Amino acid sequence: MSPRLTLSTASRVLRQVRHDPRTIALLIVVPCVLLGLLAWIYDGTPVFDRLGAPMLGVFPFVAMFLVTSIATLRERQSGTLERLLAMPLGKGDLLAGYALAFGLFATVQGLVATGFAVWGLGLDVGGSVALMVLVCIADAVLGTALGLFVSAFASTEFQAVQFLPAFVLPQFLLCGLLTPRESMPDVLHAVSDVLPLSYAVDAMTTITGGGANGDVVRDLLIVLAFAAGAITLGAATLRRRSA
Questions:
Q1: pTM of the prediction?
Q2: DSSP notation for 31-54
Q3: Per-residue pLDDT band at 85 (split at 50, 70, 90)
Q4: Transmembrane segments in this chain: where (predicted)?
Q5: pLDDT exceeds cutoff 70 at 216
Q6: What is the Cα–Cα distance from 243 to 234, expressed in whole angstroms?
Q7: What is the pLDDT of residues 102-141, one digit of tens each?
Q8: Looking only at Cα atoms, what is the longest distance across the chain?
Q9: Could you give the CA distance from residue 121 to residue 215 in angstroms, rounded to a whole number?
């Protein structure tokens, strides 16, 4: 991998996204709108304080997964990816550039969404707001990495969208958001232990519960390890063109 080629790829992706206001709205505005809707639904109850922080990690994860998987697929369908890989640019440089570009958007997304939830919606944070921002950003980076990975297995945008329920919904159901993971059947609990979103939700729950920062950092590192693994697998499975 070459840092120069990685930065060049990231710069190209950022220029493309900058001229696409709908994508920017999806990345930055939609998580805030969904959080606002959740706060409105549970207005006057303590439910938003319990669900708000975990959903603050889930919404950016879903948005980044969807945008990244489709963006990468379009490059392959248009032949851009084939032309890029015919140059000295390697697969690792390409995916690292995408991860860096969308990681910057994830940082902005995490700052905006967390700030809106805490100071705009009054989310009760029992722990560190800074740690909450970091977890939110890590969740968005995880969505980016998984989107890059699964895009290699889709031939059309319709198939890319279908991966959303296949990869995201099982994690949503088993991450401990709907019911504590400890109360799940043993098999489901074991499955939840190998799903990255479980650790993202655990980190957010620990923060709002005033738990130990060390536990949050551990879960944060696990999420980032899953993201790094997904990018590595994505580089190994990336195809130049759709079949």
A1: 0.85
A2: HHHHHHHHHHHTTTSSHHHHHHHH
A3: low
A4: 21-42, 54-73, 94-119, 131-153, 160-179, 220-238
A5: yes
A6: 17
A7: 888 888 888 898 889 889 988 887 767 888 888 888 888 8
A8: 58
A9: 26
Rg of the Cα atoms in the chain: 18
Of 53, 71, 57, nearest to 124 by C-alpha is: 53
Cα separation, 241 vs 120, whole angstroms = 44
**Joined tokens for residue 94:** 């390409």
CB contact burial 191-219 (16+ within 10 A = b; e otherwise): bbeebbbbbbbbbbbbbbeeeeeeebeeb
Is the Cβ–Cβ distance between 60 and 106 less than 8 Å? yes
Give the Cα separation of 231 and 64 in Å (integer): 14
Q: Helices marked H in the chain — which ranges?
A: 3-18, 21-24, 30-41, 47-77, 80-85, 91-115, 129-150, 157-167, 169-174, 186-192, 196-208, 213-237
- Residue closest to 134 by CA, chosen among 44, 32, 204: 204
Phi, psi of 12 (to 5 degrees): -65, -45
CB 90 within 8 A of CB 1: yes
